[in-house]
Specification:
Elements lengths: L12 E16 H5 L8 E13 L5 E14 L5 E16 L3 H30 L12 H20 L4
Antiparallel strand pairs: 1-4, 2-3, 3-4
Helix pairs in contact: 2-3
């Protein structure tokens, strides 16, 4: 009970100030090559990366979700479409301890943006002539942990003496 000892737990305050599409590209390879859609069994691969940076205004941060979605035909490996989307948000964050700020920005903030990203991806694929793609929810905690593990492994490899 921190409050009984006179040290109140910090109150976390967060608000989304803005959301925006920084960059988006959709390539309908099927239409470009004049292929027909018969006998197509799509195999969809989704790659996600994140970036966060402090803005010049105190307690403001920009968080970017970068999605690269490739759909290929399982039968012959031909690409059906490629969608790249960078979707950002500007957040006002207060009361998060410094040691917890990095994971907060790369887990909680993207989680708030995800429903909007999913909607854009669904609309773009539908408007591009394909069935709407409703991607699964991204586990941002697992993504964050994978990145930490990758960085630790890279640092360990750099520390190894070359023989």
């Amino acid at each position: 009970m921190a409050e009984e000892n006179g040290a109140a737990a910090p109150q976390v305050k967060m608000s989304v100030l803005a959301q925006f599409v920084r960059d988006m590209s959709f390539e309908n390879v099927v239409a470009q090559k004049g292929l027909n859609g018969a006998d197509v069994q799509p195999d969809v691969q989704v790659a996600v990366s994140l970036d966060a940076r402090k803005r010049a205004v105190e307690n403001q941060y920009e968080v970017l979700n970068k999605f690269r979605i490739t759909s290929k035909n399982k039968g012959n490996g031909d690409t059906l479409f490629l969608l790249e989307l960078e979707y950002g948000g500007i957040f006002h964050v207060e009361g998060v301890p410094d040691e917890q700020l990095h994971p907060f920005l790369l887990i909680e903030c993207p989680r708030l943006l995800f429903p909007f990203i999913r909607r854009i991806i669904s609309d773009v694929t539908r408007d591009g002539g394909f069935p709407p793609l409703n991607i699964d929810t991204v586990d941002y905690l697992a993504l964050y942990r994978q990145e930490l593990a990758r960085r630790a492994q890279a640092q360990q490899a750099e520390a190894q003496p070359v023989q």
